[in-house]
Here is the input.
Amino acid sequence: MIVMKFGGTSVEDSDSIRRVIEIVKSETPRQPIVFVSACAGVTNQLLGIATLSADGKKDEANDLITAIRTRHEKLVDDLIRSDLPKNYLKGKISVYAHELKNLSQAISVLGELTHRSVDTIASYGERLSSMIIAQAMEEMSMRSMLVDAREFMITDDNFTKAAPILPVVEEMSKKLLVPLVLNGYVVVTQGFVGSNGKGIATTIGRGGSDYSASIVGSLLDAAEIQIWTDVDGVLTADPSIIPAARRIKRMTFNEASELAYFGARVLHPKSILPAIDKSIPVYVRNSRNPSYRGTLITKGDGNDESVAKSIAYKEHLTLLKLESSRMFLAPDFLEAVFAVFNKYHVIAHAVATSDVSVTVATEHISDLDGLKGEISEFAEISSSGGKAIVCVVGENIRHSPGIVGRIFSALKDIRINMISQGASEINIGFVVDENDIEQAVRQLHTELFANPSSPGLSGDIFD
Ligand code: ADP
Ligand code: ASP
Ligand code: MG
Here is the structure.
């Protein structure tokens, strides 16, 4: 059995969906379970409906509902010929549009938007795309079965970023998905969506379809997890900054996790973790170019002559600087600092300490003033926003002393606020001003990946 996940751009229109179905068809002997995202842009539109409704902008919310309805009706017209399923799907789309209108109305009356309502609304994107794709497979002579992810992706109640409860997901997947697969059905289901076990829809975080696929792949011991997207695999940098970024043929779980964590959108940050547990190979592939085999992510065989693999960046960070002369005296200074950080849910992406100071790059802190107030009782604290981490990732960084010099010379004209090397020693990160991201990524890419005679580029890792 294998798990295949198709992202929003892979299912954005009828041509894309036909391509996806051909890809799945070619894999039917390997018993695929297929996770799909909402059609590209639909999740954003649904979240727009939620906020517009809460702001009392009912007409604008209704326009979005109509746009979603029309888009999916067109998909049905393009993909489904037989009258019976066509009418059935159109009826379903109409019911969903009415439900969305009712939700929008209720939210605008209350004037309040809860995370729970957000998730209910967001769940319609994947529910719509998956039901059309499952039926389109039947049209293309496949035996498919749509399964509602709310039946098996059971999560906690932490709406909008719910955590799947793995033993329950395992039990339910084995009960619901495996028998269908064994009976020769191609299972089609929704990524991103789950439920809290009481029938209320939850979602597992933006971009979470990758995570859904890899959770189920790992719980069911899939032979392979395939993440199908709109680029040829994991690239040496974000192609929106480096259009000529190179394709990476293989990388390790650790490298992929670090890259995803430091912002490479191609994979959800948690998506690799379940695969690591069971050592399940993950392929990242392009649904528009299926003849290319993509990037293979595995445990690694230590047979890798590359130095660096890729460059990622994470935006919208804040730099906190704490200074206290008391640090000399108080060995529990760091403990006190991190106790406050914990209380204010500070997610530290990079930390640097000296005898008398601590510098931390963090995501947005909702109560920055509260945090500053508490810290200022024992240390001076200052903050500056608009920061980013640019990060070079590669297993062999730890064995390549020369790389640090190359990185620094590539960045010599860029103001670096802070440097950090992850405990895993497979990344080197720099905090820079957000405005400098593009320049930093470009200069690093030129230094590390543009010259084929550079160290580490000659083997069979890059295309
Ligand atoms: P999907 O809808 O298939 O989940 P995403 O938009 O979430 O697709 O992720 C794919 C996108 O990630 C690519 O189109 C690309 O612009 C972006 N991206 C950022 N960094 C990288 C990278 N290092 N390698 C590949 N793609 C990247
Ligand atoms: N549709 C969801 C999103 O846009 C989940 C995903 O595509 O992975 O965030
Ligand atoms: Mg994605």
Summary: The chain has a mean pLDDT of 94. The CA atoms of residues 139 and 326 lie 72 Å apart. The radius of gyration is 24 Å.
